[in-house]
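Input record (Table S2, row 372):
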Amino acid sequence: MSGSRKVMVTGGAGFIGANFVRYWSEKYPTDRIVVLDALTYAGNPANLESVAAGENYRFVHDNILDASAIDELMQQEQIDTIVHFAAESHVDRSIHEPDAFIQTNVIGTNNLLMAARKHWIDSDNAPTTHLFHHVSTDEVYGTLGPDDPAFTEQTLYAPNSPYAASKAASDHLVRSYHHTFGMQVTTSNCSNNYGPYQFPEKLIPLMIVNAVTGKPLPIYGDGSNIRDWLYVEDHCRGIDRVMNKGHRGATYNLGGNNEWRNIDIVNQLCKSIDAAFAANAHLAEQFPDAPAAKGKNTESLVTFVKDRLGHDWRYAIDATLAETELGYEPQENFESGFQLTLDWMLNNEAWWRAVMDGSYRDWISKNYSAAG
Ligand code: NAD
Ligand code: TDX
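Output record (thymidine-5'-diphospho-beta-D-xylose complex):
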């Protein structure tokens, strides 16, 4: 697709969505971007401050569960491209309250597809080209053993958490709209993201916040679980490639080729925090409760807690198709991406203090108490 597009970004006030909106508005300044976001606990207009004044940008506070609001917005803005990030995205919350995941991830996706079908396929005024890009996850493929090959696009779906099951259902719906109605769709299934603006309930930002505020670093189980980590901007670049070059109807796996055991990531993070405090005396004043401010190792906060229910042991992505067909290649390695993330978190204390969610923290501390 080229020329000026009218792009609706659902979930654009969340972590990856907001990084994507910034990326897209810089790279394609003539495209109109309409963010549609319900501003759940994970959505934050502050994530979009840097683009908010742009003349080709509009923020709409609405819910993808409201089918008529989507319909109206598509008509009003003559949307020809949807990039669908909006979701309930945290596995632990899906164990706590699965219903919200079925609502937003399944019913919400179907509402968007129905509106897209009406305006792009059934309408006499349909745009000449259209695209529905669906942002999905590697978790739909289930879990791997130590010697299993990484997930490819041919790996059978085997979702293990309510979150993964709801994302799998949405992937199937998107696929069916291509097959049945000829809708132009692409789907990307990505590995674990990290980077600026990630809500501090996910592993990396949570560990940074707890480390600098002197709270335990909770490792689920024995910490041997493995994830494949990708810096968020590399995910955005990957989505760009898929949208602009990918075959319509196709799915592409995106990943970082960067597998880490949770315990190794947390230990590495502790060392990086110790080094940051050693290099910058101001940090000890800013975060007086951090062990690193008192000359202790951050690693002293590591605490093994009860395991997550149904905890997938390993995810790994084989991104060969995106690499060979689309020229996808992550730009950051884990060291550089991780340093960018740590620096951002240390420099944006006001952001993460404002978004912490008290009631959910109570549930977490009840269900993930110290093991032993
Ligand atoms: P996030 O939880 O940070 O943000 C989700 C956003 O969606 C929020 O802004 C929230 O307000 C919005 N939202 C939620 N329910 C909504 C509704 N009913 N209507 C409108 N907006 C709603 O999530 P994220 O980590 O940025 O993930 C974005 C997408 O990427 C999700 O679809 C997720 O499944 C997928 N994904 C995430 C990762 C990861 O590591 N975070 C990896 C692969 C894929
Ligand atoms: O406190 C913690 N302690 C811990 O050991 C937390 C929050 C997590 N973990 C473990 C669980 C996982 O093995 O760390 C790993 C990463 O956990 P999360 O950050 O919760 O991510 P994960 O469950 O792997 O899912 C993420 O990647 C795929 C995103 O949340 C999903 O939206 C995405 O689809």
